[in-house]
Each structure stands twice: as structure tokens, then as C-alpha cells.
Design goal:
Elements: H1 3-16, E1 25-29, E2 41-47, E3 65-72, E4 75-81, H2 92-95, H3 97-103, E5 109-118, E6 128-137, H4 164-177, E7 182-189, H5 197-206, E8 210-212, H6 216-224, E9 228-238, H7 249-275, H8 280-285
Parallel strand pairs: 1-4, 1-5, 5-9, 6-7, 7-8
Antiparallel strand pairs: 2-3, 3-4, 5-8, 6-9
The protein binds hypoxanthine (HPA).
């Protein structure tokens, strides 16, 4: 079946299983952030497994469902509670399938979150980092192959892959909350191994401030579709070789848990601010 038909089936299913029409945006909840979805009003929950053509999330700490609800009155968004990682073995086009389906329902912006290792010395565990830009080091691209012209152009511009107006909103909200928000370049690698210390030295030389195994495919697909993107990383650990101890998924999950409340407050503030400026998406891409 062609992608367009698959997306139509998936988006029709979602539409038929929620009270909300015209979703304004998509929020991708990274490690440990799933509970954020509970803050939405009038929420409808749809298990990924029920949605036609959706992949099924396998990684520990990621529930697999879509939560569609209001982030502000009359401003519905879809939260992805659990995301699909390239390292799970899906084709990279499958990783971006949910986002593409939600775009069919009107989503104009993507707020993507993740856990990442800090390379830049100031990015210590527990720091929140605004993604200023990224390096795609996944060795793959979700737009590879015949271009789905109905979604976007063959050669999308990535000069402002992360929206300047959305970054400005995030910084203002962080400041008003008295919350520290650093900024930096996120390097996306395929995983699932953590990096070697030599790879971290290489990434630092290449201009990376933080490293992770997600986000880049979604951000590319979002830009392809003309969406505005905001990305925020929770630095859960110092990258390999920068601290005396070894890396573990447990450390990542524990730091994400400790940072959760601060992260949720920031997301809530940002989304309220976005909701207050519905014309934003038009400004952003012009
Ligand atoms: N490397 C890659 N991915 C990660 C890391 C890391 O150090 N921490 C959390 N996700």
C-alpha cells in the first residue's frame, strides 16, 4: 500500500477516536516524560497498537500511546507517549510515520524532547538544553527514496530546522520561571550503543554539545512538511569518557526522573505561550 493511503487510514482512525478536531501541534515525550500527557484536559488516549500502520514501541520506560487533549482551552495537541527509535529496527520512514499522520490532522508545530549525553562541560546531568541545531549522524535519512510530493519538497531547506520564534518563546518562558535553559547542538546517532570516548572527542570536534539516539528523523520529517520545530534535551549523563563511571540506561532514567517536574513545568509554560499566539506558525516559516 502506498504511503499516502497508509497515512490516510492512520489519520482517519485517530480522527474517529478523539473528540478533538484540527490538532494544533505534536509533542514528543522522551524518556521519563510520559506523565506530561496527564496534564492535558479532555484527553483521549489511543494505544499505538490500535492505529493502522503505526509501529509498536519496545523500549523500556516508553509507554506506547497517543494522548490528544487541550494544552489550553480550545487548543488541542497530540502527545506521543513513547516514540519509535531507529535502533529498534524500524525503517527510518516508520520512525516518522506517526508525525506524518498527525500532520494530516492539522499539526503546525512539533515540540520534541529527549534524553541526551552532555559533551560540552557546562551540560551537566539535570541540565535542560534548547536544541539550537543538529548534526544528522544517523547514517540514514527519512526522506531517502522517492519523494512523497504530497508531504513536501524533494530538497527541503534546513537553515532554520529549529524555529527561531519558538526558541525565543522557550527562552522567555524559562527566564520567567527562573529555570536555567542552556542551548546547544544535538548530534543524533543511530545507537543503540552509547558512544566510545574517542567518538565523543570526535563529536566535540564536529561541533556537538550533546548526543542522543532520537529526534533527528522527526525534525527532518517535520521540516519537510513545513512544520515549526522546537527541541529540548534533558541532559541525563556526561557523555562517555567525561566522567569516571560507565554509562547505563538506569542512570539516564534516574536523572530524567529527577528532572521531570522542572521539565514538565517548562513544557507547560511553553505550550501555553504557543497557544496564546495562534498566528505563530505563519510567522515562523515566512
Ligand atoms: N549517548 C547517546 N544517547 C544518550 C545518552 C548518551 O550519552 N544519554 C541519553 N541518551
Amino acid at each position: 500500500m502506498f504511503l499516502q493511503e497508509q497515512l490516510s487510514e492512520a489519520s482517519a482512525f485517530i480522527k474517529n477516536n478523539t473528540r478533538h478536531s484540527a490538532i494544533q501541534g505534536v509533542v514528543v515525550l522522551g524518556s521519563g516524560l510520559g506523565d506530561f500527557a496527564d496534564t492535558l484536559s479532555n484527553a483521549d488516549v489511543i494505544e499505538y497498537a490500535r492505529i493502522p500502520h503505526f509501529p509498536v514501541s519496545t523500549v523500556q520506560g516508553h509507554a506506547g500511546c497517543l494522548v490528544i487533549g487541550e494544552i489550553a482551552p480550545g487548543f488541542p495537541a497530540a502527545c506521543m507517549k513513547g516514540r519509535f527509535h531507529y535502533y529498534e529496527g524500524y525503517g527510518i520512514d516508520k520512525v516518522v510515520f506517526p508525525l506524518r499522520a498527525l500532520r494530516q490532522l492539522g499539526a503546525e508545530f512539533l515540540l520534541v524532547t529527549n534524553a541526551a549525553g552532555g559533551i560540552q562541560p557546562e551540560l551537566t546531568p539535570g541540565t535542560l538544553m534548547l536544541i539550537d541545531d543538529h548534526l544528522n549522524l544517523m547514517g540514514d535519512n527519512p526522506l531517502k527514496g522517492t519523494n512523497p510530493d504530497f508531504l513536501g519538497p524533494r530538497f527541503p531547506d534546513m537553515t532554520e530546522a529549529y524555529s527561531k520564534p519558538l526558541k525565543a518563546i522557550a527562552s522567555q518562558v524559562a527566564e520567567s520561571q527562573g529555570a536555567a535553559l542552556k542551548s546547544g547542538v544535538y548530534a543524533g546517532l543511530s545507537g543503540p550503543v552509547y558512544e566510545t570516548p574517542a567518538e565523543i572527542r570526535m563529536l566535540r570536534t564536529l561541533g556537538a554539545d550533546a548526543v542522543g539516539m532520537s529526534t533527528v528523523p522527526e525534525v527532518i520529517a517535520a521540516n519537510h512538511m513545513g512544520m515549526s520545530v522546537l527541541g529540548i534535551s534533558c541532559i541525563t549523563n556526561q557523555a562517555a569518557g567525561l566522567s569516571p563511571h560507565k554509562l547505563s540506561h538506569q542512570e539516564v532514567m534516574e536523572t530524567a526522573e529527577h528532572t521531570r517536574q522542572r521539565f514538565v513545568n517548562l513544557l507547560t509554560g511553553i505550550l501555553n505561550q504557543i497557544a496564546a499566539q495562534p498566528a505563530l506558525s505563519e510567522q515562523v516559516r515566512s
